[in-house]
Amino acid sequence: MTAVTHDELLAEVDHLISVLTDSFGVEVLRKVVELHRPVGRYCFSCVGENANGVLYPCPTIEVIEKGLL
Question: N or C, which end of the chain is more exposed by having fewer CB within 10 Å?
Fold first, then answer.
């Protein structure tokens, strides 16, 4: 699988929001992707879970990417 940028992943989520009729779940998914954003080499949301930080893409983003792309 080719790596995607955070912005590309958000664009894919936005596309799903515009296509799906039940957008509540997709909007929640977008919020999760927004929270798990890269800060340097690390995931913004996962830094607190591990004193050394979690490299981006974190496991959360990897699962979302596999499901969408």
Answer: N
Please count the other Cβ atoms lying within 10 Å of the Cβ belonging to residue 54. Answer: 20
Per-residue pLDDT at 58? 94
Q: Is 38 helix (H, G, I), strand (E, B) or coil?
A: strand
Q: What is the DSSP string of 8-23?
A: HHHHHHHHHHHH-S-H
Peptide bond into 57 cis (omega under 30): yes
Residues 6+ apart with CB under 8 A from 41: 53, 55, 56
- SS3 assignment, position 48: helix
pLDDT at 3: 80
